[in-house]
Design goal:
This protein is mainly alpha-helical and 149 residues long. Helices cover 68% and strands 0% of the residues. Among the domains are: 32 residues; 45 residues. The protein starts with a helix and ends in a 46-residue tail after the last helix.
Length: 149
């Protein structure tokens, strides 16, 4: 064997060893990457339990919110009905007061500032001057508008 042949054989062996080493290193790197990927997937699967729990909590909260909205709507309807009832009762009362004022000789129900009075017959002590009823004012003694009896 000649030196050239020996050098060629050594070069081929070195290249073959380098190729085998590169192949083995590539396999090890791939195995390591598979292992890391498996760990990441395992961690992701561990989060699945948290996701399921969070999803269930969100669904329960949404259901509670729906119930609360329905209850609020029901209560709003009750409040509106109670307000309508109050308005009706107040209107009936005002009608009755207007009827009483219309026949009471002490009440000027035709005055521009007339409002139905909330007084009993003969009651002139309330000091209400906007009701159309002429009533005395209560003042401090010694004041400019002192009441004389």
């Amino acid at each position: 064997m000649t030196t050239t042949t020996t050098i060629i054989i050594i070069a081929v062996v070195v290249v073959a060893v380098l190729l085998i080493a590169a192949f083995v290193m590539s396999r090890r790197r791939q195995a390591k990457h598979r292992h890391v990927a498996a760990e990441i997937r395992s961690d992701a699967d561990a989060h699945r339990v948290e996701i399921d729990r969070s999803s269930q909590q969100a669904a329960e909260a949404a259901a509670r919110a729906d119930l609360a909205r329905a209850e609020a709507e029901r209560v709003e309807q009750e409040a509106a009905e109670a307000q309508r009832e109050l308005d009706l009762n107040q209107a009936r009362r005002e009608d009755a007061l207007r009827e009483a004022d219309a026949i009471d000789p002490d009440v000027d129900h035709r005055a521009d500032d007339y409002r139905p009075a909330d007084t009993q017959p003969g009651d002139t002590q309330s000091g209400d001057t906007q009701s159309g009823v002429t009533q005395p004012r209560d003042t401090q003694p010694g004041g400019a508008g002192e009441r004389t009896v």
